[in-house]
Amino acid sequence: MRVLLTRALFYIITAFAAITINFFLPRMMPGDPIERMLVRFQGQLSPEAVFALRKLFGEGDDNLWTQYWAYWGNIFRGDLGVSISAYPASVGSMIGQGLPWTLGLIGLCTVLSFAIGISLGMLVGWRRGSWWDGLVPFTTFLSSIPYFWFGIIMVYLFAIILHWFPLSGGYQAGLMPGWNGDFITSVVVYGTLPAITIVISSVGGWLLGMRNMMVTTLSEDYVLLAQAKGLKTSRVRQRYAGRNAILPSLASFAMSLGFLVGGSIVTEVVFNYPGLGYTLFQAVNQQDYPLMQGIFLVITLTVLVANLIADFVYVMLDPRTRQEAH
């Protein structure tokens, strides 16, 4: 318990540092995004209105430290500010629009690629030296192809040449979003090609890591003892070898779950998918610092929470960790 409390304290300190950097870094960047926004009004605003806008975006006449403490107060109130590029829409509403798309696509694909990769890696490691080892170079080759390049190939082949899938977007134009059959079917059809791209590109890394850990774990004494006792092959493979071999992959999986909030930016941009990664890409292009800050904050907190949960799961799965703590 003391180890977990120490790790929780570490994550709190890390969150404080990340939020502080998230505040100061955009303000150190060159350029004035508010001036870009004012160009749209073509000088129609009075000086008082301009001052009110700057005050709204946390600038005004306040010094930097006053703005910093006000930023912390806004965070605790759940107020992430107003988007510059989509003014007067709030940053929270912009994140809320893209988050369900990213969680639905990237989240499902992350879990699916992890499950497929770990399962195949366990089987390949258990039957090392057989024809199953041929999966390793093939999946590693697919994983080595950059996301954007592989995505472009998939779009060209299956959307342009074969016309099996839509070219881009999240659903068919003209449909009203809602929980109805037409919209859900359209979302599934439009998300299938990006999902296939992400799973194929990701599964090789999980497979290779799990396969190598299985080979190492199979030489451990407790696995040899379980085999000598005549236990079922499936039980030895899953309960003794697989359970311990999967532990190093949990940290990477937790990181993947944390970063899925930011979406697979390149994939979402290639497929013009309306997720949070595509929203972040647009915010960077338009120098929308409040929106960038909000997305980075959500990503940071999600990664920390995912890693904290992974630490708890690690302790539950590995008895040696609990013994060391005692």
Write the layout of secondary structure elements.
Elements: H1 2-28, H2 33-39, H3 47-56, H4 64-76, H5 91-126, H6 135-144, H7 147-161, H8 181-217, H9 221-228, H10 233-245, H11 247-259, H12 265-270, H13 276-285, H14 289-317, H15 319-325
Helix pairs in contact: 1-14, 5-8, 5-13, 5-14, 6-8, 7-8, 8-10, 9-10, 11-14, 13-14, 14-15
Structural account:
- The protein is an all-alpha fold and 326 residues long.
- The protein has two domains: 2-76, no CATH class; 95-325, MetI-like (MetI-like fold, Orthogonal Bundle).
- It contains 15 helices and no strands.
- Helix 5 (91-126) packs across helix 8, helix 8 crosses helix 10 and helix 14 crosses helix 15 (319-325).
- It is globular.
- It starts with a helix and ends with a helix.
Q: What's a concise summary of this model?
A:
Helices cover 74% and strands 0% of the residues. The protein is built from 15 helices and no strands. The chain has two domains: 2-76, no CATH class; 95-325, Orthogonal Bundle (MetI-like fold), CATH 1.10.3720.10.
Separate helix tally: 15
CATH topology of the largest domain: MetI-like fold
CATH first level of the largest domain: which class?
Mainly Alpha
Kindly report the name of the CATH homologous superfamily of the largest domain: MetI-like
Beta-strand content bin: under 5%
